[in-house]
Design a protein that fits this description.
Blueprint lengths: L1 H9 L11 H46 L9
Helix pairs in contact: 1-2
């Protein structure tokens, strides 16, 4: 991103690489970063849900073991 900003500043003084439209390239990269941020947020939500579900299942398993008088699954 920083490199593109430097190229944009130099665009008035030098030729831009063939076929590159700097405003379009900057917009494309910003859109890509936004898409990645959305994907990361979705992954984090799914990971938190998965963790909560796994923790609840584990706690249920521990409670059932305690009810029948079996030792916990881990050592203190």
């Amino acid at each position: 991103m920083q490199q593109l900003l430097i190229q944009a500043e130099q665009a008035d003084q030098t030729a831009v690489p063939d076929g590159m439209d700097l405003p379009e390239e900057i917009a494309r990269r910003e859109e890509r970063l936004a898409t990645l941020a959305q994907a990361r947020a979705k992954i984090e939500v799914h990971a938190k849900e998965h963790y909560a579900r796994e923790l609840a299942e584990y706690q249920d398993k521990l409670a059932r073991r305690k009810e029948i008088g079996r030792p916990p699954l881990h050592r203190p």
